Prior knowledge:
The model is unreliable at 15-55 and 62-78 (pLDDT under 50). A five-stranded antiparallel sheet has the order 9-8-5-11-12. The longest helix has 23 residues, at 336-358. It is of the alpha+beta class. Helix 1 (2-23) runs parallel beside helix 3. It contains 15 helices and 13 strands. 33% of the residues are buried. Pfam families: IPK. Keywords: ATP-binding, Kinase, Nucleotide-binding, Transferase.
Amino acid sequence: MSSFKNVVDLWERLLEIMSCISCQDCLALKHLLPRFPSIHAAPDKTTEPMTYSKTSSWRKIRSFILWSPFIQVFKKHRYPWIQLAGHQGNFHAGEAGSVLKKLDPREQLCFQRLMADPLKDFVPEYRGDVEKNGETYIQLQDLLASFSHPCVMDVKMGVRTYLEAELEKARRSPTLRKDMYQKMVEVDSNAPTAAEHEQRAVTKPRYMQWRDQMSSSTELGFRVEGIKKTDGSSTKDFKKTKSRENIVDILSSFVANNETIVRKYIKRLKEIMAVQESSEFFRSHEVIGSSLLFVHDAEENVGVWMIDFGKTEKLPSGSSLDHRTQWQEGNREDGYLFGLDSLISILEEVHTGLSSSSV
Length: 359
């Protein structure tokens, strides 16, 4: 009975924390956190000692609370995958099991269409719209809710991360971006042309084309955007990661050389590909800037989902893409499946290497 009361008390504290997060009352939250029991704390001699096994309901609930993205919002001010993507300002905590993402009409429409497409099983569930502090958000499934101490990787898919419409707009009315010039020279001071150095600015499409070409996007059809490990450490320094050999090393490190996890990832990716190849949504949309979110934990639970549809555009009626044909301006091919072919092939190489070393 004491164990049950502790569970109830813990959930009550969690609800209070949710309220603090919503109103950004960090001071109140600071006073609430110490009231959470610790599995390492000495037992209270005035109460019945609480015992539980590794798989007990108490430990599962405590793990869910302490490691769910809701607590991470306070500790890191962002969700694990949001930190990787670099757009944490667009997200907020939602109801239990949900996250709120600032509404983008194009992405909202994509999710509405995806909920009626076979791909719905491979994207976050769309749970409608929410008004918060004068802003409108789409409410999405929290993909990390069922994982304990998750490792997360964001992989941006496709051979390009800019829409053809962006190229056309830049030609009609080019806008110079000093911030993107600065990002460029921080990575490679020789990358800008003499004219770009003189004006100390570049156009957005120019920056994005350069970004794709210097990474593995153009050659392999995908690039690793960021990785967050179980211990909370994160890495986004993959801007110059281009070769297949380097990607093999990165993916091996991400899965901690765990053969089972690699095998499960390969299986999941093949399932996604099979559905994409028969999906009316996928066939009729130019999918740009979308990522695959990889998640696993120490218990070898594994998941992969398609995320980020802010640059996904529906094609004109009667048009379709195969997502493997080489992109030439005007054909709108994005290379998504070309990249997925490469990604699966590299993971299979990782798996083969691990299998050989374990013999």
